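In response to reviewer comment 3 from the previous cycle, which asked for concrete evidence that the modeling workflow produces usable outputs, we include below a single protein chain processed end to end. The sequence was submitted unchanged, and the resulting structure tokens are shown without manual editing.
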Amino acid sequence: MVDVLTLRRQVCFPLYAASRAVTDLYRPILDEFGLTYPQYLVLLVLWEHPDEPQTVKRIGECLHLDSGTLSPLLKRLERGGLVTRSRSPRDERSVEVGLTEAGRALRDRVEDVPGRIQRGTGLSEAELVALRRTLDRLIESTRQPHRR
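The workflow returned the following structure tokens.
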């Protein structure tokens, strides 16, 4: 009989360890720019549409984070002069986040981060693309209600 409750048989542990290892790769690189990893993720969302403010709700949906987690991140980014936060003119209940000029300019300065991370992993670009596809499928399938 196979013991399913061994560490080597769990999918959760390599995912957890890999997540920590990759985050540890980002830390010293992002420190050069005064960013934390979660702040970098928020900026990635905003850089996709730099001239269109995004609602806190949309940023949270993209990053799978709730507003309670996002709010302190956004406040720090605002204090750092990288983003602005304001009530939506279309819906007073909604807060929009936009990039400042400094936030837009930072994008050019961090452009080599993905390449540095790839080199740090020791994986090829094709391997990382395949891994990302697999992880995207895993995330999607575990978020579907019928899977829970």
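The chain has one domain: 9-115. We consider this sufficient to address the reviewer's concern, and the full set will be provided in the supplementary archive.
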